[in-house]
UniProtKB/TrEMBL annotation:
CusB-like beta-barrel domain ranges (all copies): 198-280
Keyword Coiled coil on entry: yes
Spans annotated as Disordered: 1-47
Compartments, as annotated in UniProt: Cell envelope
InterPro entries: Beta-barrel_RND_2, MdtA-like_BSH, UPF0194_transport
Record-annotated membrane-spanning stretches: 54-72
Record organism: Litorilinea aerophila
Superkingdom as given in the UniProt entry: Bacteria
Keywords, sorted A to Z: Coiled coil, Membrane, Transmembrane, Transmembrane helix
CC terms in the record's Gene Ontology section: cell envelope
PANTHER family noted in UniProt: BLL5650 PROTEIN, EFFLUX SYSTEM COMPONENT YKNX-RELATED
Name this polypeptide is given: Efflux RND transporter periplasmic adaptor subunit
Compositionally biased region (Pro residues): 8-18
Amino acid sequence: MAQQPRTKPAPPATPESPPGKQNGQPTGPLAPPPAPTAVAPAEPSRRRHGRSPAILAILLVLLLATAAWWIGAGRPAPTQLLPWPWQEPAGPLVASGTLEADEILVGSEIAGRIVSLVQEGQPVQADQILAQLDDSLIQIQIRQANVAARQQLEVQLEHYRLRSPIDGVVMRVPMHVGEVVSPGQTVAAVADLSSLKLTAYVLERDLGQVRVGQPVAVTVDPFPDRTFPGVVTGINQRAEFTPRNVQTRSDRLNLVFGVRIRVENPEGLLKPGMPADATFLEP
């Protein structure tokens, strides 16, 4: 006889909640208000990260504005590196000195009394008489001598006339009319002022920038807007201290080399004794 399948018993019926309650909680007008839902605070790290781009943008704008102000005011940007005081830009070498004239000393070969004499600063030409010695005695001898003796005396007569060897200017006259000059004593000094001599003093560390034949531009205080051409003619082989009449006291304590320069002076504007600055040029 076939067996009937077993059926699962039905669960017991749950008693219905009384009116006004649901899940054991009162409902309706008497029910309490629902509890507020707590909101989790935002993470601090996220809040900081959100502000960083804005702060960086503001700082960048301020930095750019500051740089623009500096550049507009003619000042270097804050990021520009300024050179140290001793790192001056390289430029042409400049040295100082004093203009001088090449004087030719005119003296007497014999003793005699001066009866005429040129004045200091007087222009003279070559073979012009600078001083005349008293020749009255030899003139008498010439008149009394025969032909052969007269020729010899006329040669001696020329020693009583002191002549200029060049065209130039009388620079110094150490004698006076009426004085007796001795053999070899200087009566006058003559110089050609169309070209002058300048001895500029160069520090040892700068001597490599100077060479013989190098062109030079010379300036002097009386003519600040003019330059006078020159050329290096020689360099002293021995170092010396800067002369007292050149540069400052501290500069005079340096060892320097004298550089000889020939300066053209066709208009005669330059005078011996003038301080001058020499700028050494590249050929």
